[in-house]
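Collaborator request, handled under Task 6.
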Amino acid sequence: MKADKQALAEEGPQGMLGKALDGIERVGNKLPDPAMLFLILMFAVWGLSALLSGVSFDAIDPRTDSPIVVNNLLSAEALTHFLTSMVTTFTAFAPLGVVLVAMLGVGVAEHSGFINTALKQMLKVTPAKLLTPAVVLVGIISHTATDAGYVVVIP
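Structure tokens returned to the collaborator:
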């Protein structure tokens, strides 16, 4: 019985779950910045499209009854289209405006100390048992700002 308690104390209070979460945290901390991940994956897709553009596939597109073809995204025509329509692509994405304005507001609130003070005040009055429901409530209420809540509240 005493050996079991000692083994639990050595493993830590969370045991196997704690070890798994620590492993996930270590791997997550080694990942690059999200913007760099996006660029790395974009270059990977471009490279795969160039490699697979010469491969013929047996699959048929049911809409056109023609074989599925991979377009080379590194061709001159594709790169020209990418560069000339970049601004239009990003500005035509509807949630972008809301997200940019919300992130600007969050940035001002963070650097002015408002968020830190508000969180401290909220934690003073929120019982420990109600902390998770409080975070869920904030997430639900943030959804009223269209789709920006997921982008703003989670970080």
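The cover message to the collaborator said: "The first helix runs from residue 2 to 11. Strands lie at 60-61, 66-67. Please let us know whether this matches your experimental observations."
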